[in-house]
Design goal:
The protein has 64 residues and is mainly alpha-helical. It folds into 2 domains: 33 residues, no CATH class; 28 residues. It starts with 9 loop residues before the first helix and ends with a helix. The protein is built from 3 helices and no strands.
């Protein structure tokens, strides 16, 4: 990932960097790795996220 600073505008570059990191869900992964998660809980979380992702995709597919 590369963020360019134009015209010495560091604040804007930081804002863009944070947005990109949010898009890649890096902050979410850091939170999850900060504590131990039992394998059964991890599997259920992944299933819940997959279900949520499928429903979101279905909802948007339906509209087009």
């Amino acid at each position: 990932m590369e963020i360019r600073v134009n015209g010495n505008d560091v604040e804007r570059a930081l804002k863009i960097l944070k947005r990109e990191l949010q898009k890649e869900s890096l902050f979410k992964e850091i939170k999850q790795r900060s504590y131990y998660e039992k394998p059964s809980v991890k599997e259920k979380r992944k299933q819940r996220e997959a279900r949520k992702k499928r429903m979101k995709a279905f909802r948007f597919k339906k509209r087009t």
